[in-house]
TrEMBL record:
Keywords: Membrane, Transmembrane, Transmembrane helix
Region (Disordered): 1-20
Top-rank lineage group of the source organism: Bacteria
Full protein name: O-antigen ligase-like membrane protein
TM helices/strands, residue ranges: 29-49, 55-76, 83-100, 106-124, 136-154, 195-218, 230-253, 259-279, 347-373, 379-403
Length: 445
């Protein structure tokens, strides 16, 4: 039985009849539960229940079950600042829907209400536990990289990639995703989908996560090679775009000893990319920006034109939008959160939402590069606004986890020492690079 919420900014714990301290999981168990839930959601992302004209991803149920479990065990907290921003967003969104007219769809708005409700919660872990959590994530990402290599080996052997569409009942498959996609029209080989992922763009993005985290924190050459190779072999532009957009922030995590490795690896990677046709693929994708109806044009150019046209229209539409759920039906195009929130909810809700969203992902003490990486994948992967798995990534790497002490992360210290509980790296927020004793800091409170 969950009792009342204890007040007290910025975070408040749940209290039940029994002592929450007695019920709380150990931090090691908590990390295990979090990473186990993470990868359970990854391998089941293709499953969804068909209702209300769409497919409700099974990930949404996993999100709800995780929050309920953490609440029962007494590890969950509510961030009151997030609650206030969430209420402001939902109230403003509701008013915008009423004022936008009858075209707005109530189920779409209810979906928004549910997905972003999960953002108000967090659990507290130590810096060293978070690094351990990242190390577990890397092991899972390495398994996903192996799935990419397996897809190619089986194709070259003439067997074909494993296909979950032949196993999952048709009425439980997430639709509107291209699970099996040829490299190009009429090509013999398919883009690898990592077996469990919705489509090539999702495994491409996941390999980008692994590469960025490995480069910034662990720096194991073989692991970086595995993630980089798998990323190239997905032939997906999403992961490459994620790495490019994160590159300026990754420079803050750069170490001089990586220079010789980069000088050796870059020419080899360039030759492999050229021979495999990857450079031609990138050139072709860049040309799509001006090609009407193409993926690149629909994902970027067309959406900017839609938002521009909206703000050039009436003041009423610019302020309150056209109504939730109308963008896909009216424009018959893919959408990103930048365009969708502005078009459907208007400028006022747009500003409130992004204040809420950015506060949730940048205000929990996780490394800046992790928050930035999640922001980039959210903004530039189609449909992120209402796709549970994309929001689940953000929840599990940023918003749900609050790192105690709000450490200032950098690469100047040895992260493996941090994982062993010996040192805390200090960095991006300024000051001279130094190593601080984590245990002494925690003892000081």
């Amino acid at each position: 039985m969950i009792g009342r919420l204890q007040s007290g900014p910025p975070e408040a714990p749940f209290h039940g009849a029994a002592s929450t301290d007695a019920r709380k999981m150990s931090e090691k168990t908590l990390v295990t539960v979090l990473i186990g839930t993470f990868f359970f959601a990854v391998v089941t992302m293709k499953i969804g229940a068909h209702m209300m004209g769409t497919a409700i991803q099974f990930t949404l149920i996993i999100m709800a079950a995780l929050i309920a479990g953490l609440m029962i065990w007494g590890d969950l907290k509510i961030n009151l600042n997030r609650v206030f921003l969430y209420i402001a967003f939902i109230v403003a969104g509701g008013i915008a829907n009423i004022l936008s007219g009858p075209a707005s769809q109530l189920p779409s708005f209810l979906f928004v209400f549910v997905i972003y409700f999960f953002y108000i919660f967090n659990v507290s872990i130590s810096p060293e536990s978070y690094v351990k959590y990242l190390s577990y994530f890397q092991k899972g990402a390495l398994v996903a990289a192996f799935c990419v290599f397996l897809d190619w080996v089986l194709q070259i052997a003439g067997i074909g990639m494993p296909n979950l569409d032949h196993i999952i009942p048709e009425n439980l498959i997430m639709f509107n995703y291209v699970y099996v996609q040829p490299l190009e029209w009429g090509a013999k080989y398919m883009k690898p989908n990592g077996i469990f992922f919705l489509e090539a763009s999702y495994i491409s993005q996941f390999m980008a996560f692994g590469l960025i985290i490995e480069f910034c924190f662990f720096r194991r050459l073989l692991w970086m090679g595995a993630f980089g190779s798998a990323l190239l072999l997905t032939f997906g532009g999403t992961g490459m775009l994620c790495v490019i957009l994160c590159a300026p922030v990754m420079l803050f995590y750069f170490r001089a000893k990586l220079i010789p490795i980069i000088l050796i690896v870059t020419p080899v990677a360039a030759v492999v990319a050229l021979q495999a046709g990857l450079l031609q693929n990138i050139e072709m994708r860049s040309d799509e920006l001006n090609e009407k109806g193409s993926s690149g044009n629909m994902r970027f150019t067309q959406q900017l034109l839609v938002v521009e046209g909206m703000f050039e229209g009436t003041t009423h539409r610019a302020l309150v939008g056209y109504g939730s759920g109308v963008m896909l039906r009216q424009l018959h195009t893919m959408y990103t959160p930048v365009a969708k929130v502005a078009y459907e909810y208007g400028l006022i809700v747009y500003v409130i939402f992004y204040i809420f969203f950015i506060y949730c992902i940048f205000g929990s003490g996780v490394p800046f590069i992790i928050s930035w990486m999640m922001l980039m994948q959210y903004l530039f992967l189609n449909g992120s606004f209402l796709v549970p798995i994309n929001n689940f990534y953000i929840m599990m790497l940023c918003s749900l986890i609050s790192v105690r002490g709000r450490p200032r992360w950098t690469t100047f210290g040895n992260v493996l020492d941090l994982a062993r509980g010996r040192a805390e790296p200090v960095g991006l927020s300024g000051g001279q690079p130094a190593i601080v004793d984590v245990r002494a800091r925690l003892e000081r409170g």
